[in-house]
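Lab intake sheet, docking and co-folding queue.

SAMPLE TYPE: protein with bound small molecule
LIGAND NAME: pyridoxal-5'-phosphate
LIGAND FORMAT: SMILES
REQUESTED OUTPUT: full 3D complex as structure tokens
PRIORITY: normal
SUBMITTED BY: R.K., bench team

The fields below were copied directly from the construct record.
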Amino acid sequence: MKLFDVYPLNPIEIVKGKGSLVWDNNGQEYLDLYGGHAVISIGHTHPHYVERLTDQLNKIGFYSNSIRIRGQEELAEKLGHVSGKVDYQLFLCNSGAEANENALKLASFYNGRKKVIAFKGAFHGRTSLAVSCTDNPKIIAPVNETDHVVFLPHNDLEALQDAFTTYGNEICAVLIEGIQGVGGIRPATNEFLQLIRSLCDQYNAVYVADSVQCGYGRSGKFYSHDYAGVNADVYTMAKGMGNGFPVAGISIAPKFKPWHGMLGTTFGGNHLACAAALSVLEVIEQDHLMGNAASIGAYLTEELNKFKQVREVRGRGLMIGIDLPEELSHVKKELLFKHHIFTGEAKPNVIRLLPALNLTKAHADQFLDAFGQVLNA
Ligand SMILES: Cc1ncc(COP(=O)(O)O)c(C=O)c1O
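RESULT FIELD (auto-filled):
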């Protein structure tokens, strides 16, 4: 049997990791500023994470949602505290797409409506409705096509106001990333998120904050949407939540009332997933990782802005997009193959930095030095 070949692969086999470093099967060391696509939040093989997971695995790894799982209650309590949304409710699932799917389903149960507002450049995952809200026709199969989704230009206040005037009480939800990731690291403006909040209030629509990539402390605040100073109705999260263990969730405002059978999953919120998510929150809190993300992110941004070849540096905290001109399209590959530094990318020519939230200044400097060498070669 062969693998179903859907991924363009780098010819590198990673076999070991520690903090922000990984090693390949030949013993070559790499600096990881990509984190397997924003997933590694507290660093590879963090001792507390390994201990928590090992300990849980030795007791029990899995049981379904037919019994009480105390780890879920502990996780809800801790997440409420660390995210600052203490009165919200938690539903656990397994991936970012699934989180968005559940958030939209919840919104639709809540107000009985079907129309979803999404934005140009957005990425929300690959399940049916999540992919329909994703601005990439190439990954939308005919079976996913729907008239329910309206795409608006990102950060366009007038277009948003017009859409509400046109569709009014038909609008079920507005789904927006606090910082577009796949779209090239493009933050939503505070004014835009504030307008979403007030229009959703006015029309009883649901504000869904996709925090799958930009959440869990990455931006320097727990949810990057928090920069706007208004609450969303539902926050979706995944990636950094489990530091590599597949776990996702939605944080749900108190006005949503659950009923048995409304949402459900077999694997979501199992014992191991909760141990992983709890250990991540414990490290984020104890080691002040949101503060570190904010300060190392600000340092990197300031230094990157000094390179005159860079067109623009975007993002917040440790979610940084370096927009380069076309003639510098070789930079990402050179960073990887000459300097052994993993970074991410976005089309057409944006380098994405999505490192662990405990990235040190020394590692930031290592990257800046290599980046300068590649640019000035
Ligand atoms: C903003 C955003 N939402 C949703 C998803 C989908 O998450 P998953 O791949 O875990 O389904 C992603 C994945 O890249 C994402 O960046």
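REVIEWER NOTE: The chain has two domains: 60-286, 289-320+333-377.
SIGN-OFF: pending second check by T.M.
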